[in-house]
Write a structure and sequence with these properties.
Blueprint lengths: L23 H22 L10 H8 L2 E2 L18 E6 L8 H16 L5 E4 L7 E6 L16 E5 L10 E4 L4 E2 L5 E2 H13 L27 H11 L10 H4 L12 E5 L2 E6 L2 E6 L5 E5 H4 L9 E4 L5 E5 L2 E6 L2 E2 L5 E2 L14 E5 L4 E6 L2 E6 L4 E2 L5 E2 H4 L9 E5 L2 E6 L2 E6 L4 E7 L23 E3 L2 E6 L4 E6 L4 H4 L3
Parallel strand pairs: 1-5, 2-3, 2-4, 4-6, 7-8
Antiparallel strand pairs: 5-6, 9-10, 10-11, 11-12, 13-14, 14-15, 15-16, 15-17, 18-19, 19-20, 20-21, 20-22, 23-24, 24-25, 25-26, 27-28, 28-29
Helix pairs in contact: 3-4
Amino acid sequence: MLFCISFGPKDGHGREHTAGTEGSHLVQSKNSSLLDGKIREMQAFFGLTVTGQLDSNTLDIMKTPRCGVPDVGQYGYTLPGWGRYNLTYRIVNYTPDMTRADVDEAIQNGLEVWSRVTPLTFAKTSKGIADIMIAFRTRVHGRCPRYFDGPLGVLGHAFPPGLGLGGDTHFDEDENWTKDGAGFNLFLVAAHEFGHALGLSHSNDQTALMFPNYVSLDPNKYPLSQDDISGIQSIYGSLPKTSAKPKEATVPQACDPDLTFDAITTFRREVMFFKGRHVWRIYYDTSDVECELISSFWPSLPPDVQAAYENPRDKILVFKDDNFWMIRGYAVLPDYPKPIQTLGFPRHVKKIDAAVCDHSTRKTYFFVGIWCWRYDEVTQSMDKGYPRRVVKFFPGIGLRVDAAFQHKGFFYFFRGSKQFEYDPKAKNITRIMRTNTWFRCKEPLNASSDFSISEEEVHSGGVEMFYHKNSNLLIFSIVHVLKKIYSYP
């Protein structure tokens, strides 16, 4: 919000014309009335006591860093917006305050805030004229009719959909831009300005992203209020409904004793379990279990992912077939997916079965069939001497791994409906459990105590032996490995 208050025309030296003594009282009275009206309008918009006077509360609001779009309209003032759903954007230049990758991420995140609740999609281009041209500028800049005022004050401005400047979004380079809370969070300001670029005006709801004054929110949380969502959907509509298939037939049951997973990864203080189109989220310090559609977090990710892991740089890598995506927070980073060969895999490797990062050593283990590869997260290259056979490098685990993650120093390997708690230092299994013991089912369905190992697992000639504690039943699983079939090419 920027309330522009003028006191009449000025000459080249910045002085107001008085038009002589005669009529000056009339001009003064008219200007005073105009100023009083503008102040009252601003006070009403911000929910202040309407006095028409520049009291302390009004001055505080005026001094707060803000958006430079000068309007007090209602939502949808540019209906019907762009008139199409597939839009392009281009970052013309970058601020030196942040790395290019962090700027790319903040801009993409800011756009995805709106694509998550509408049919809108955004494609980045590096040349030519895009629908939304994004630039960092200072003071009076180019042919833009709006200008910046140095540090603090106006942070950015954007133009509503249309030709020429329509959609263009500018940020004040005199501000300190950041990806965290040290200065002005570029993601939050960008998301606000993109609201204007898509057709929204300001909101007087102080919880809304489109509230004109800068409010430092948690950038890891979804910033839109219902007011924002209602506004943008009044222009573009809501997300298209998914397939008409009944949800009951597609939602996996968390307490199914035969439950299997496609991929598992940690994410800060969470563990995420992927299955088909869904992902379960559990938190280390609570008993909450949430099941969501993968697309509700990351619309561009495919279903049926095959592997995932969290690297030491607070990013998640997700794999399907011979491609992988890199995620930070709820945003897939630009220029993904990329082929897995960029990580160092040879071309004959067509998919990853599982992955887990040992955060104490910064080494990531990739499981491909009966083979294990090791990747150095520091040098970002594959270690020499790999691949190795899973059965030799992780004794007791067996020939294949469906999913894996690390928790409190232990690896948890999943195969079928079983999971193996593995001590990587001692190189042995400490427990065998059902896959869903993390979900705290009301009926345990053979919980972890039923699958404890009471004697060391033995491997000889491809034979796995487990001792079942409760039933005193010795289960033999004899695995015949044909060298011609399983030998590494």
